[in-house]
Amino acid sequence: MLSILVAEKGGERERLDFDKQEISIGRTDDNDVVLARGNISKRHTRLVQKDGRIIVVDQKSTNGTFVNGKKLAAPQVLSAEDIVAVGDFELSIADEPEADPETLEEPPRLSPPSAHAKGLAEGETGPAQVPPASTSTSTSTSTSTSTSTPAPAPGPAPEPAPARARAPSARSRRPAAVKDQQSISIERQKWSKLLKTCHDKLIEAMDLRRLDMDRLGDDELWRRTEQTIRGIVQKMDNLREIPPDVDKEQLVTDVLNEALGLGPLEDLLADDTVSEIMVNHASQIYVEQKGKLHLANKTFSSNEAVRHVIERIVAPIGRRIDESSPLVDARLKDGSRVNAIIPPLALKGPSLTIRKFARERFRIKDLLAFGTLTAQMVEFLETCVKVRKNIIISGGTGSGKTTLLNIISSFIPEDERIVTVEDAAELQLPQDHWVQLETRPANVEGKGQITIRDLVRNCLRMRPDRIVVGECRGGEALDMLQAMNTGHDGSLTTLHANSPRDALARLETMVLMSGMDLPVRAIRDQVSAAVNIIVQQMRFADGTRKVTYISEVSGMEGDIITLQDIFYFKQEGFDDEGRINGRYVATGFVPRFYDDLQRRGIPVNMNIFRED
């Protein structure tokens, strides 16, 4: 017999039993399992039971078959924990009923995996879960039906077969982290199903969709909803519909958060060790802690719940998300940056990414403590800001560009007027004379959009002493360069690039995106005249963020913009825990403007440029 569990993503699972050793899955009626959806091929997948194992075989389907999120490239042996994704459906192997102990003399012997399944014997368990060969009973984790083995014929006792515990399966040789993730996945699925059941009962009991939220008020709505949830959980517990090991208070909290708050994100947002939250789909949430990614043990009850949370985030700031506008940038009340994208663009369900905003603004002493840069580099950057040098902070996604921009902007004198321009407001400046501008997306009719470029142009009419642009990524780079070249010295911005040299090339590309038909030489002249300092920041594999270069744009040689490194980070390998080893080096080069400052009688510390 072959038994499987089938569920549409986010829906209830249904058990299907087949008295055969091979079943086909597809869209047409001639399949054993018919899944009538447009993203299912006519004959999509086969499950084959052979030698005590169940093997999944893709039938050259258009959209492919996925096992645990990875596309199937060859036939693969399945275990009870594996999740097979076929279009909008998920399949798994159903647990077999327990065999009668009296019918078993010894554990069933499994033949070795076939060549294509070598190293993928997913149906076996680790040694700690397998009884020794002399035990009279056995429970196999394979989904095939357990069979009894006839008693040996009289005569000399055969040499006992080696216990399976002595030969770890391919699964037992996997890293512990993989096992932990599989265990977490199973627990998350169980919790998600229970959460959805409670949530559905809550909607049925209160019909949250029809309540007048404004009339009730937040406090009253939360009180009534919590009271209803507690009643539902108590009734389910009395009927033994909730496993005894489930934390009832946590269940009430999670259902309440999902109904009226941000669901499982509430706890993650409250956790100060979490810097970024990534919802891939309803049943998979990753978080970044101390620069490392981890699978969270929280889930949403369904993709619809994720969609509702996204709508709760974007609605208060006048933004929308629907099929006509399936992606959006927004921010939470605390300033955390949010990006959301929904189907049909997100194939596995609504996806949400939150870059958390620090509760307390980082200061330069924090970066020094983190080892992001040195005191000499800080002193140099502070001088650059105070003498109105134009600075570009370059780096990859998540490298800490905005944090550094925020900190060095605090060096701007209090008596200067600052105008900041951002897509999603993140900067927190301590100065009082500060105007904060934020872009606006188009409305339902596709009108009313205000871009960064529009705001940068408007800045020039606001009598700014400093213009700070959160990030340049398009044609606004031309307007920023023109502002730097026309009396708005001391401006700052960030852009995405992997090195100071790449940052210059990226600037050229963005200027061309403005639509102005300018020769490359003219663009490079503009860049060379406008940009003084490039600060390169990088996030390393161990999660640390460091300023890897501080370089001066020193002029032009022919058609090439010349750069001179002032400080750089020299990596010297890794320590025993995999952390980056290295040191900061001063090249000995003194920027040209320092000589000018000395001639003008402005005191400067030349010792910071001494070579180490």
Number of helices: 14
Question: Unreliable runs, pLDDT <50, ≥5 residues?
Answer: 97-179
What gap, in angstroms, lies between the N and C termini? 73 Å
Approximately how much helix is present in the residues? Answer: 25-40%
- Mean pLDDT across the residues is 79
Which strand-content bin applies to the residues? 15-25%
Biggest sheet character? 9 strands, mixed
Taking Cα atoms only, what radius of gyration do you get, to the nearest Å? 31 Å
Anisotropy-based shape: elongated
Give the class from helix and strand content and strand pairing. Answer: alpha+beta
Q: Widest sheet: strand order?
A: 20-19-21-22-18-23-24-25-26
Query: How many β strands by DSSP?
Result: 26
Question: Explain this structure to me?
Answer:
With 612 residues, this protein is an alpha+beta fold. Helix content is 27%, strand content 24%. The chain contains 14 helices and 26 strands. It has a nine-stranded mixed β-sheet, with helices on both faces. Strands 2-1-11-10-7-8 form a six-stranded antiparallel β-sheet, with no helix packed on it. The protein starts with a strand and ends in a 13-residue tail after the last helix.
Furnish the topology, listing elements before pairings.
Elements: E1 2-8, E2 14-18, E3 22-26, E4 33-34, E5 45-50, E6 53-58, E7 65-67, E8 70-71, E9 76-78, E10 84-86, E11 89-93, H1 176-206, H2 213-216, H3 218-238, H4 248-260, H5 265-270, E12 274-281, E13 284-289, E14 292-295, H6 303-314, E15 327-331, E16 337-341, E17 351-355, H7 364-370, H8 375-386, E18 391-395, H9 401-409, E19 418-422, E20 434-438, H10 452-459, E21 466-469, H11 476-484, E22 492-496, H12 500-512, H13 520-530, E23 533-539, E24 545-557, E25 560-574, E26 580-586, H14 592-599
Parallel strand pairs: 3-4, 18-22, 18-23, 19-20, 19-21, 21-22
Antiparallel strand pairs: 1-2, 1-11, 3-5, 5-6, 6-9, 7-8, 7-10, 10-11, 12-13, 12-17, 13-14, 15-16, 16-17, 23-24, 24-25, 25-26
